[in-house]
Amino acid sequence: MAQNNVGALETGRKVWRLVPSSLLGRILLLTLLAMGVAQVASSVIWVGTFRAQQVEGLVNTTRNLASSTAATTLFFKSLPLQYRHIVLDQLRDMGGSRFFVSLNNKRIEMRALPDSERKQLVMDEVVSVLKSRLGKSINLHVEFVHPDDLRILNTQLPLDALPESWAHYALTLEPIKPPVLVTQVEIATGEWLYLASLLPAPYVSLDDESIPGQQIVFILVMIGVLFPVLAWLVRRQTRPLHKLARAARDLPLDEHRSPLREQGSAEIVAVTRGFNTMHRRLQSYISDRDQLFRAISHDLKTPITRLRLRADLIDDADIRERFESDLQELELLVKGALQGMKDT
Q: Which residues of 272-308 are buried (b: 16+ CB within 10 A; e: fewer)?
């Protein structure tokens, strides 16, 4: 347990060493963290809203597409059998429609795309609309297929094997290859109506949209612009602090030295004003002390000078020498005491 606590403390110290010691570095670090948290939160909210709007638009688009599929199915079911292929040939000669339509004698098997949430959502919506329009007993099959795996007609030809006027208008979107929605409905025994189409733009993909590149570029540009401006502002605001620190370190007590300029933010102005006030008080204190020492020195040295003059009037040389020696020793004691008080 003790070793774990020591290890945790050591880890905490190492992490703390990574924190900048300067005010500028700490403000920039905090700003970066705040911007990161804000951007992540806003991006999560934005992406959630964006995806919800996309899902809503995808559902509405799918309903319209399924309604068109149901209408096309009802139209072909209403045609006499001998006219169905004539109508198909006319559609192909005119360049097709939003669907590629064919009549097959069986359901064509194709490799489906992997399951995903959006794929299942679209397929369920298509099946629901078709069964509500065509009847719940209708035999149908709905699947998403990659264009390379798409098979058409009874001969199961790939898409590239068909003339461009037949299917490329409805089933290609160069340069991307979006998934193809294939709906096969049994309209009669041994007769399947085959309808293939793309999802309308911008819902051509079944993948969940990530954060767009423009959003990431915007975040990087904002950081690149904001950081230099913030660094300049912080440096400008902290410059008076550097001057204050230098003045406090040197502590100039010269009475003729001008006080520091009170500039910067309100907090820095208050600190600078307090320092200038302290400086004036110290100067006043030192000036008063010097005057006091001069007065004390004068008051103590005057009696010693008088005694020295009187000692010169003593006729006995031996007594005069001892008296002058005592006065000299007393004068040295007074000077030492005054100097000691002055140095403190």
A: beebbeebeeebeeeeeeeeeeeeebeebeeeeeeee
Q: What is the distance between the alpha carbons of residues 102 and 84, in angstroms, rounded to a whole number?
A: 9
Closest CA to 106 of 70, 133, 143, 141: 141
Question: CATH 3.65.10.20: does it fit domain 35-198?
Answer: no
What proportion of the chain, given as a percentage, has pLDDT over 70?
79
Q: The tokens 């209403």 sit on which residue?
A: 78
Judge whether 35-198 and 251-343 match in fold.
no
Is the alpha carbon torsion for 18, 19, 25, 31 positive or negative? positive
Domain segments of the chain as ranges: 35-198, 251-343
Q: Tell me the CB-side half-sphere exposure of residue 22, using CA atoms within 13 A.
A: 10
Q: For the structural domain made of 251-343, what CATH number should be given?
A: 1.10.287.130
CB within 8 A of 330, min separation 6: which ones? Answer: 304
Amino acid found at 341? M
- For 181-219, write each residue's pLDDT tens digit: 899 998 888 889 988 888 776 665 666 555 566 667 777
Amino acid identity for residue 158 in this structure? P
